[in-house]
């Protein structure tokens, strides 16, 4: 068999093309949607603590802004590259479309291992990213947010830098900020909470009782850990968590009696990883994928589920918390094996949904309680899930195919109205 294509941009293009074909859209639609409208590459010189200057490469892509300004996170990770940023921006367009939030898709990244930087270096890098890009950002232009390797503090530095450079007070230029300075209640936990809502809804449709369901989650960062917390709250049993640590690379923890979120989080906060976590057996990532579970949740990076992995998965349902965790070829195998997948553009859309709520609150200068935010998020996500499920049933397609059909059509219709084709 030929080597599997792991270029995330080509994966995203295949998904969009399939929807354009299924909808019989004019060829111009795919021509517009196959690449971002703009991709900017910048060099960011950063004065390091030892007095030397290091230059980091950064990117920002806006895939499409027909429906509204670009929206999407900024990733700080050594594996960032232009095709990854472009693909992530494509997925953002259709994630926003699925949820009906009035944005287009954007995404950014910097090639860096943030854990190798001091706090001062991280702050100067975050500010440098904005210095290189501020002319292309704005509350109504393109709105960054957190992604892998970035957090509320990084967002606060970015907004501060933007406001200094522009002489404005534009809180809504970046979302995912700390609650103490323009952030929304519930945003930090929103992606993981949303994953739990989609997992629950899908389980219900598939006749899986979420109470006592065996769940395995790959990743214990922002999304993975809050997924664990919220799925556990629903009564599911977290039997395995997959992680990565510099000392051992990939590894996973397994306990058939169940792992506890609070206990693992406390251990993680103290030790920075879960390598020697005492209340579980350490297993390999290969063993992790083969576990017999009800729900499998990849919540780390792209290309986690390859053809090889898809062939050995023993789950009744896969919920994609990460962006692009399943390759298109692996997706075909899962389809043939009858394993349903709730796609990333629906499953992890809680983050951008609450980012939208944050932006609305910033523009209004009026803030909501955590309960209000969570309730509104849940209503929106259940509605999106039901709309997509209805399409899947009507056209006898996968959940992913239905999600793309719904979203690509929305974007195509607006582009038509605007006279883009
Ligand atoms: N943050 C958000 O709001 C949103 C994030 N997402 C997506 O969710 C995914 C996770 O993002 P997020 O949680 O924010 O990022 P974080 O940086 O908070 O966490 C990523 C986690 O994945 C771990 N990891 C990395 N590689 C592997 C691996 N091969 N196996 C197991 N674990 C691994 C990391 O470990 P280590 O830290 O040791 O490297 C870390 O714990 C990404 O795909 C992101 O794009 C989607 C929607 C919104
Ligand atoms: O909160 C946002 O604006 C976007 C989050 C994000 O990057 C994502 O959904 O992948």
TrEMBL record:
Residues 184-419 form the Glutamate/phenylalanine/leucine/valine/L-tryptophan dehydrogenase C-terminal domain. SUPFAM superfamilies: Aminoacid dehydrogenase-like, N-terminal domain, NAD(P)-binding Rossmann-fold domains. GO terms for biological process: L-glutamate catabolic process. Pfam families: ELFV_dehydrog (PF00208), ELFV_dehydrog_N (PF02812). One of its GO terms (molecular function) is glutamate dehydrogenase (NAD+) activity. PROSITE patterns: GLFV_DEHYDROGENASE (PS00074). The active site is at 107 (proton donor). Substrate binds at residues 71, 95, 355. This is Glutamate dehydrogenase. It comes from Keratinibaculum paraultunense. The lineage of its organism: Bacteria, Bacillati, Bacillota, Tissierellia, Tissierellales.
């Amino acid at each position: 068999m030929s080597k599997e294509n792991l270029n995330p941009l080509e994966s995203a293009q295949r998904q969009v093309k399939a929807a354009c074909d299924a909808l019989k859209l004019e060829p111009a639609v795919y021509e517009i949607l196959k690449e971002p409208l703009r991709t900017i590459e910048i060099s960011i010189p950063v004065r390091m603590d030892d007095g030397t200057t290091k230059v980091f490469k950064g990117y920002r892509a806006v895939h499409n802004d027909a429906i509204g300004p670009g929206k999407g996170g900024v990733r700080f990770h050594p594996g960032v590259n232009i095709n990854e940023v472009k693909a992530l921006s494509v997925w953002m367009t259709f994630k926003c479309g699925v949820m009906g939030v009035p944005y287009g898709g954007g995404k950014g990244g910097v090639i860096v291992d943030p854990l190798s930087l001091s706090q001062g270096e991280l702050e100067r890098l975050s500010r440098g990213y904005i210095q290189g890009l501020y002319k292309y950002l704005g509350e109504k232009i393109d709105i960054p947010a957190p992604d892998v390797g970035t957090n509320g503090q990084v967002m606060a530095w970015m907004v501060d830098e933007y406001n200094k450079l522009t002489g404005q007070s534009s809180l809504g230029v970046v979302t995912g900020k700390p609650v103490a300075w323009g952030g929304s209640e519930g945003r930090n936990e929103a992606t993981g909470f949303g994953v739990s809502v989609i997992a629950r809804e899908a389980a219900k449709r598939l006749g899986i009782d979420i109470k006592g369901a065996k769940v395995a989650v790959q990743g214990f960062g922002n999304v993975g850990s809050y997924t664990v917390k919220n799925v556990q709250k629903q009564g599911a049993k977290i039997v395995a968590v997959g992680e990565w640590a510099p000392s051992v690379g990939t590894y996973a923890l397994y306990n058939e009696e169940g792992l506890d979120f609070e206990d693992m989080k406390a251990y993680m906060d103290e030790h920075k990883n879960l390598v020697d976590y005492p209340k579980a057996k350490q297993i390999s990532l290969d063993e992790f994928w083969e576990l017999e579970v009800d729900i499998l949740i990849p919540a780390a990076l792209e290309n986690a589920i390859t053809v090889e992995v898809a062939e050995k998965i023993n789950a009744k349902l896969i919920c994609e918390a990460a962006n692009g965790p399943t390759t298109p070829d692996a997706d075909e195998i899962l389809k043939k094996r009858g394993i349903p997948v709730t796609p990333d553009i629906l499953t992890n859309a809680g983050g951008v949904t609450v980012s939208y709520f944050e932006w609305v609150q910033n523009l209004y200068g009026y803030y909501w309680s955590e309960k209000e935010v969570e309730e509104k998020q849940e209503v929106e996500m259940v509605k999106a899930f039901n709309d997509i499920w209805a399409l899947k049933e009507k056209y006898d397609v996968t959940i992913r195919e239905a999600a793309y059909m719904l979203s690509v059509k929305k974007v195509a219709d607006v582009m038509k109205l605007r006279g883009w084709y």
